[in-house]
Amino acid sequence: MSVDMSDVLDWRRRGMVAQLPAALWDEIRSACSEVRHLPPRSTLSETGDRMNYSALLLDGIMARYLRGSSNGTARRAMVSIQVPGEFIDLHGLPMKALDHDVESLTAAEIALVPHAALERIIARSSDWALALWRLTMIDAAIHRHWLYRTSRMRALASMADFICEMHERLRHAGEADGHSVALPLLQSDLAEITGLSTVHVSRVIRDLREGGLCTVRDGRAEIHDLERLRHLAGYDPGYLYLPAEGD
């Protein structure tokens, strides 16, 4: 049975879900059935699991992993990161199962919204259905950019691009300022995200620091020159479809 999570979720309307109409957000907030806390590096769902809810990330960082195999050995690849204010698995609403694993990278807090409630919400308003669909389309746009990053960008530009992206997404989630962003990731995580080896990641981080652009240390990225970092990456945040400043 759904419970009223209004007091719990009221201040969490940030990031991507801040773009939803206020009335739709009120419906989602009221439909939330549970707020769940996850420890770091824990599994929320696995490939093929039957889905009956969608999870909204309230705090922390989570990732999706695509399973594969090589010579009979199971392997996984990180294919996305989710930050506060983003639905982790809204595409599970029509699909009812995911083709990837979902795990927490840090301690995380999620709100679970039953699919039955979401189906009632979108049945009530085509505008609301489009607003939720838009979130899944932005998610897909981010994924396409990740494919480009890992397959076409050179090492320094790839790392700079990821840091710029995280700065944009976390800033809109109220988790970053103009010069610093939380980046509580392992070097192996950064290697997957940028398409580099872990050894190459260390060199790239050093080069960014020595170039006076950015220092990645102790779970944070201290950005010394955001304009130059964006120039190095050729960074254009248009694929995030974030609202213009002041909107």
Folded structure, characterized:
This protein has 247 residues and is of the alpha+beta class. It has two domains: 6-147, Jelly Rolls (Sandwich), CATH 2.60.120; 154-240, Sandwich (Jelly Rolls). Helices cover 41% and strands 23% of the residues. The protein is built from nine helices and ten strands. The chain has helices at 6-9, 22-31, 92-95, 115-124, 126-152, 155-172, 187-194, 198-210, 226-233, and strands at residues 34-38, 43-45, 53-59, 62-70, 73-82, 101-104, 108-114, 180-182, 214-217, 220-223. The protein has a four-stranded antiparallel β-sheet with strand order 2-6-4-5. Strands 1-7-3 form a three-stranded antiparallel β-sheet. A hairpin with a 2-residue loop joins strand 9 (214-217) and strand 10. Helix 4 crosses helix 5 (126-152) and helix 6 crosses helix 8. The longest helix is centred in the middle third of the chain and has 27 residues, at 126-152. The radius of gyration is 18 Å and the shape is globular. The two termini are 36 Å apart. The mean pLDDT is 91.
User: How many strand units?
Assistant: 10
- Mean pLDDT comes to 91
What share of the residues does DSSP label as strand, in percent?
15-25%
CATH superfamily of the largest domain: Jelly Rolls
* Sheet with the most strands: spatial strand order: 2-6-4-5
Distance from first to last alpha carbon: 36 Å
Gyration radius from CA atoms, angstroms:
18 Å
* Highest-level CATH class of the largest domain: Mainly Beta
Assembly state? single chain
How many DSSP H or I helices?
9
Biggest pleated-sheet summary: 4 strands, antiparallel
Written as H for each helix and E for each strand, in order along the chain, the element string is: HHEEEEEHEEHHHEHHEEH
Structural class determined from secondary elements: alpha+beta
Tell me, briefly, the overall form: globular
Low-pLDDT segments, ≥5 res: none
CATH topology of the largest domain, anyone?
A: Jelly Rolls
Query: What percentage of residues falls in helices of 4 or more residues?
Result: 40-55%
Overall number of structural domains: 2
Gross CATH architecture of the largest domain: Sandwich
